[in-house]
Amino acid sequence: MDCFYVITGTMDFLSHISFPKFEKASVWMVGAGPGDPKLLTLYAYHALQHADVIVHDALVDSAILSLAAKTATLEPMGKRGGKASAKQGDITQRLIELAQQGLKVLRLKGGDPFVFGRGAEEALPILDKNINVRIVPGISAGIAGSAYAGVPVSDGQSNQVISFVTGHDTSGDVPAVNWQALAQSSPVIVFYMPMKHIAKIQSELLKAGRVPSEPVCAVSRATTPHQLVCETTLANCVEDLNKANIKAPALLIIGPTVEFRQQLAGCFS
Ligand code: SAH
């Protein structure tokens, strides 16, 4: 029988864990995980409860933001795959401004701040202003999103290497990847932001020797109620993802572990 626990009021057990003080005039850069609020860390929950202002990525789910203290101000800001969004410099500038006003500033980012999240790029100019920054890791979409689709990123028999690759660089171009080396050394490859250059990703991997029948799985809005999964092959992925209406934010997983989803997909619903 399914059993659900609803969290009401404060989580008393948090008082047994010692968290650092969220100082005024400081910035906490915190990973919010891939979407499902249950995948939030206790650290992130603590930060949500103590921040004065929360500057959050477009990708951060409203169910997570609803855990903020009632007194906190929410400021949406950040990247959303392909659409116009705040410039990186403007985000950093805003964080500096808010900290200089003496506020406890929570910069809430999707997944993990350092996994294709430009966390360091955002933090360094803040540190340059002598403002304290604390980085709190989160569960990255490449790991939890693949799992929720029923795909383990590694398996003892299948792969000793996993590669996490961005589908485009910071200017939106095809990433500078050594496709030959990637294709030959990494049985499992997980692409973040794969949709813009999917045809190029497919053709480069085929050119580098990956076989057309290789299993491929795409998952969009993973871990949320809108999660959509499409299982296909390298040869058919461009057409099938289009037909399945897979759109950003999405992950593309290529490799033998995709076949596990037949047995494992039900373990995450
Ligand atoms: N720092 C984030 C990644 C930021 S880049 C992390 O660690 O997860 C943004 C990309 O992450 C999206 O374009 C998509 O490729 C991936 N992503 C983030 N959340 C996702 C989700 N819920 N489902 C599928 N992909 C997701």
Automatic annotation (TrEMBL):
Pfam family, one: TP_methylase
Name of the gene this protein is made from: cobA
Family of this protein: Belongs to the precorrin methyltransferase family.
Matches recorded under PANTHER family: S-ADENOSYL-L-METHIONINE-DEPENDENT UROPORPHYRINOGEN III METHYLTRANSFERASE, CHLOROPLASTIC, SIROHEME SYNTHASE-RELATED
Superkingdom, taxonomy of origin: Bacteria
CDD domains for the chain: SUMT (cd11642)
Gene Ontology molecular function: uroporphyrin-III C-methyltransferase activity
Domain Tetrapyrrole methylase: 27-235
EC class name: transferase
Official protein name in the record: uroporphyrinogen-III C-methyltransferase
Annotated EC: 2.1.1.107
GO BP annotation list: cobalamin biosynthetic process; methylation; siroheme biosynthetic process
Protein's pathway: Porphyrin-containing compound metabolism; siroheme biosynthesis; precorrin-2 from uroporphyrinogen III: step 1/1; Cofactor biosynthesis; adenosylcobalamin biosynthesis; precorrin-2 from uroporphyrinogen III: step 1/1
UniProt keywords, alphabetically: Cobalamin biosynthesis, Methyltransferase, Porphyrin biosynthesis, S-adenosyl-L-methionine, Transferase
Originating species: Candidatus Terasakiella magnetica
